[in-house]
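== Item description ==
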Amino acid sequence: MPNVSVFDVSGKKVSELELSEGIFGIVPNTSAMHIVVVNYLANQRQGTQSTLTRSEVSGGGKKPWKQKGSGRARQGSTRAPQWYHGGIAHGPKPRSYGFSVNRKVRKLAMKSALSSKVAASEMVVLDSLKLEAIKTKEMVKVLSALETGKKVLLVLPEKDDIVYRSARNIAGVKVTLVNTLNVYDILNCNTLVVLKDAVAKIEEVYA
């Protein structure tokens, strides 16, 4: 079973934690992670882009010239796609880009993402994180002591408004909860900082 060091807010090692082999110690499945990341990004798309077809562009009710005898190509409307100010042929219309992913694949992708972070030594377990007041400087001190990278994902076991508001103005730092944790955020960060209680919750959810 994989073991990780547990640190306090000063960056001092206080103990070691044995992680679940089935969640933090599997061989990462890159295919599953790719599918879930593409799904996450697709679901973020608004899909509100829209163009006007020839039936939606104003004007063009009168036939430009008679069908025969002018020597020019026959035309039925000045709002056909080939005309200036004409409608758009086959242009984008509002749509949903989202698609569903099998639950087993989502679960495998999450385990793979967590395991890849442990294997790369990019996961840090924090004993506890209690701030007396909303202080961004205090949060910066904690992250500096843990020697995290530029992008940090801080995983909390439950909502903590003081921690969230202390970290929200730090560039590259994102705070999330166990129930809102996703594969994209895990792979997108340089360091995954997880509270000890959050590790237990993750193991409980994905066991």
